[in-house]
Amino acid sequence: MFAFLEGNLVYKSPSMLHLQAGGVGYEIHITLQTFSKIQHLDTCLLWMHLQIREDAWVLYGFADEQERQTFRQLLNINGVGAATARIILSSLTPEELERAVATEDAKTLERVKGIGSKTAQRIILELKGKLQVDKNFVTNTAKMHNTIEQDALIALVNLGINKVAAENALHKIENIASLTIEDIIKQALRLI
Questions:
Q1: Which of 18-22, 49-53, 112-116 shows the lowest mean pLDDT across its residues?
Q2: CB neighbours of residue 28 within 10 Å
Q3: Domain locations in the chain?
Q4: pTM for the complete prediction?
Q5: 4-62 is classed in which CATH architecture?
Q6: What is the pLDDT of residues 43-70, one digit of tens each?
Q7: What are the CB-based long-range contacts (under 8 Å, 24+) for 128-131?
Q8: pLDDT higher than threshold 60 for residue 139
Q9: CATH of 67-127, one of 3.10.350.10, 1.10.150.20, 2.60.120.620, 1.10.357.10
Q10: Nearest to 17 by CA among 32, 154, 3
Q11: Among 36, 106, 146, 167, which lies 20 to 30 A Cα-Cα from 180?
């Protein structure tokens, strides 16, 4: 239902924030990883996951798409709910989780609050071979800090442009902060 939300950060805490977008205030649950990336920002773009429960609709927000994908993969594991998945991603980055799963390091997972040995083994079994963290995406997206550059990158990728080629083109544009998103996209398309 929601792919992402962009707006003003009205309230921030390590586990939740209030984002004002289009005149509506959204209460969004976040991980510590996301908080560390947005804590000094006034506006941001968050990748969203909507969980519809019997008693509430709960929004979860992530600073990058990779973290959201990892969250969703964790939700597919029997016995891992949204709260547990959020704790895992607050304790481990997607890269650290991928490494723990690939090396079958159950001890790393057991150090996460609320994860016992059976759950750690189940996570490893279920996610083995499924987590493929795109290090370039995580690194380059973090450099963009949820700016107009990231919006342009998303638009270029949605147009079918290779992500790495789009990122390289965006980094070549001079005075990017003074341009509109339309101008940035046009210039990037010329540079590709």
A1: 112-116
A2: 21
A3: 4-62, 67-127, 147-191
A4: 0.68
A5: Beta Barrel (2.40)
A6: 999 999 999 989 999 999 999 999 999 9
A7: 128/101, 128/102, 128/104, 130/73, 131/70, 131/73, 131/94, 131/97, 131/98, 131/101, 131/102
A8: no
A9: 1.10.150.20
A10: 32
A11: 36
